[in-house]
Amino acid sequence: MEHNAAHSSHYQRQHCSTQSLGAGMNQLRHFQYPRFARRWIKLSAGLERRGLAGLREQTLTGLVGRVIEVGCGNGLNFRHYPAGVDEVIAVEPDDTLRTAAEYAAETAPIPVSVVAGHADDLPGADGSYDAAVVTLVLCSVPEPASALAELRRVLRPGGQLRLLEHVRAHNRVAARFQDLISPISAKLDAGCRQGRDTGSAVRDAGFAVSGLKRFSFPDRPWVPGQPMICGTAVLADEAPV
Length: 241
Ligand SMILES: C[S@@+](CC[C@H](N)C(=O)[O-])C[C@H]1O[C@@H](n2cnc3c(N)ncnc32)[C@H](O)[C@@H]1O
Hints:
Helix content: 25-40%
Strand order of the largest sheet: 3-2-1-4-5-7-6
CATH architecture: 3-Layer(aba) Sandwich
Number of domains: 1
Number of helices: 7
Bound molecules: S-adenosylmethionine
CATH class: Alpha Beta
Order of helices and strands: HHHEEHEEHEHHEE
Number of strands: 7
Distance between the termini: 45 Å
Radius of gyration: 17 Å
């Protein structure tokens, strides 16, 4: 347990001194949402019980090698990483959530290093990860195309992007409703945009998206669910056109 916490701060000293703790630290001021963070820590516990934990498990199943998780929040994915994962570098810009993630890393089944950073400026050389994980994050980043380009940079050719994201509704009325409430959720929920077409953004960034499935969450007849996508997108060898 202590090993992971020590590993985390060691990683920050060794690898993030300029990228995330220098100039990057200045950039992180734009991603501090302490009220949202406290609310998410409470709210997410209920969502986990209502099925989100199972979706996390599905999203991460079969992962192997070196993994980067972007926007790890309070670290709810950590306990679901399979044994084949050698190491997770978990990037989180918000100070409150990052502190919670550091606690979660201590009991993770695989080594997790929690680092300060954000989606547009990830730690790691080009092609240095076997897989990347984003869950409920691409709705919140300022520019999905730029975050996906950065994910593309750090993934090796053929690397996997594992996703669990809420997305734009197919139904036109529902999509219009998402557009209407999006400015409110962006204000209250750490920049979260309701109606983003994340599946198309992932495909446009040069990933093969045939491994993504679409569903509603929560999946209950009496509760209107949110459209979501979950699964694996694979980095194509060729650059996107
Ligand atoms: C709804 S929470 C989800 C947290 C976590 N991924 C999970 O599945 O529980 C949204 C997360 O996105 C993070 N986030 C927002 N903008 C970000 C950015 N530009 N780069 C990285 N993470 C970002 C927030 O700090 C927060 O942790």
